Structure formats: structure tokens, C-alpha cells
Amino acid sequence: QVTLRESGPALVKPTQTLTLTCTFSGFSLTTSGMCVSWIRQPPGKALEWLARIDWDGDKHHSASLKTRLTISKDTSKNQVVLILTNMDPVDTATYYCARTVTTVTNDGFDIWGQGTMVTVSS
Amino acid sequence: QSVLTQPPSASGTPGQRVTISCSGSSSNIGSKFVYWYRQLPGTAPKLLIYEDNRRPSGVPDRFSGSKSGTSASLAISGLRSEDEADYYCAAWDARLSGPAFGGGTKLTVL
């Protein structure tokens, strides 16, 4: 069974750095075609893709947030970490991690974590 | 403003067929695959359609996707009360260098 679970702080102050961890099971991020993305959703608003890391180490970042984002993986721990710097209240959102298997669903996110709500407030 | 444009709402009665549209451009829908997700209240999205019109295992054939040019559609036939949810389209966008999502369509089953 494939699962993903997000973890991190529920509250951060403006200008602080957010670090989120996606811990997954049921697949390996060293298998060809496997990728993990971060996607966020502000309250009552639409989904926004942030970044993706692939099985081969390739990284893709949203052009609008590229300067603030870092994505990395620890395959030994089955974890993907997202770092978002200089947090602002507009970054308040539920943050999801999701899997893509490019060899099966191309760019589709086939399994999602439950999401973690992050509020940016002083 | 979302890169992909969806109607904010749609509705139908049980048993009816409804369609939800998604409009984009040559940098996304016009040249890349379209994906559709359903999000029930308070839950994570679920993949309904991938590669324009393919269904993942477990998704009933009441759900179908189509694409023409820079627009795509999701059709739901035999509408049920449990189909009441938010629906999002998505496609890789060359300018974003990643997936773009539509603004979402809230489907109400009357």
C-alpha cells in the first residue's frame, strides 16, 4: 500500500523559513519513473504546484517561487523535504505531497498525502 | 488568476450527465496531457483522469475526459449525490515549467 504523510510546523512567523517533510512508504524514490511533488492550497482557493523531485535527482520548481524553494530527498529514509524561505501570510495553506509515476500516469498525481495546514502569522 | 480556466460552479440532478470545461492555451492543454482531480470537502484531491481520457484503476466509467485544441472537458454520467465535490483540471505548462491547475469547479447535485 502506497502512503504519503506530511509533517511540519502548523504555525510560522512572517520572514521565517518553513521546512516540511513528506514521509512515504510502499514505493522507492530510486525506481525509474517515481517522483514526489509538493502542492499547496490556500483556504477556499485552488491548488498550486510548488516543486517536484524525480527518481534520478532531477528537480523542477514553480517559476514564480523558484528563488524561495528548495526540494531534496533522502532515499534511505523515504523522505522528501521542502524548504520555503521568507514566509508571508499569503503562504498560509494546506501543503500536500503527492506521488507521480511517469511511466504509468505521466504527470498525474496518483497518490496524495492527507495534507498539513500551515498558518503564517505573527 | 489560474492559468487554466474553469467555471466556478456546475450542477445537475441525480442520474443526469454533466460536463465541466477547462480552457487553456498552446503552452499547456494545446501541447500537453490534461488531468482531472476530484476533491471531497476536507480531503485531499484524487486522480480521476490522466493523459486526457484515461481512468486509473478503480475510477468508474461514469467519468470520462476529452480534449480538443486548447480546451478539455470532464463528463460525469449517472450523477450521484456523492459526486458533489470540487473538480480541478491540470496540465503541464511550459511557462510555469510545471503543472498548472484550474481554479476548480464546485459541483452541486440538486
**Average pLDDT value of chain B?**
96
The gyration radius over C-alpha positions of chain A equals 14 Å
Largest interface: A-B, 24 and 27 residues
Low-confidence stretches of chain B: none
Series of secondary-structure elements of chain A, N-terminal to C-terminal: EEEEEEEEEHEE
Distance between the termini of chain A: 40 Å
Shape of chain A: globular
Question: What is the beta-strand fraction of chain A?
Answer: over 45%
Multimeric status of the protein = heterodimer
Give, in order, the helices and strands of chain B: EEEEEEEEE
Binned strand content of chain B: over 45%
The structural class of chain B is mainly beta
Distance between the termini of chain B: 29 Å
Q: Supply the number of helical segments of chain A.
A: 1
The rounded Rg of chain B comes to 13 Å
Structure, described:
The complex is a heterodimer of chains A (122) and B (110). With 122 residues, chain A is mainly beta. Helix content of chain A is 3%, strand content 52%. Chain A is built from 1 helix and 11 strands; from the N terminus they run βββββββββαββ. Chain A has one helix at residues 102-105; strands spanning 3-7, 11-12, 18-25, 34-41, 48-54, 59-61, 69-74, 79-84, 93-101, 109-112, 116-120. In chain A, the strands form 2 sheets. In chain A, strands 2, 4, 5, 6, 9, 10 and 11 form a 7-stranded mixed beta sheet that branches. Chain A has a 4-stranded antiparallel beta sheet with strand order 1-3-8-7, with no helix packed on it. The longest helix of chain A is centred in the last third of the chain and has 4 residues, at 102-105. The relative contact order of chain A is 0.31. Chain B is mainly beta and 110 residues long. Chain B contains no helices and 9 strands. Chain B has strands spanning 9-12, 18-23, 34-39, 46-49, 63-68, 71-76, 85-93, 98-101, 105-109. In chain B, strands 1, 3, 4, 7, 8 and 9 form a 6-stranded mixed beta sheet that branches. Chain B has a 3-stranded antiparallel beta sheet with strand order 2-6-5, with no helix packed on it. The radius of gyration of chain B is 13 Å and the shape is globular. The model of chain B has no long low-confidence stretch (mean pLDDT 96). The interface between A and B is medium-sized, with 24 and 27 residues.
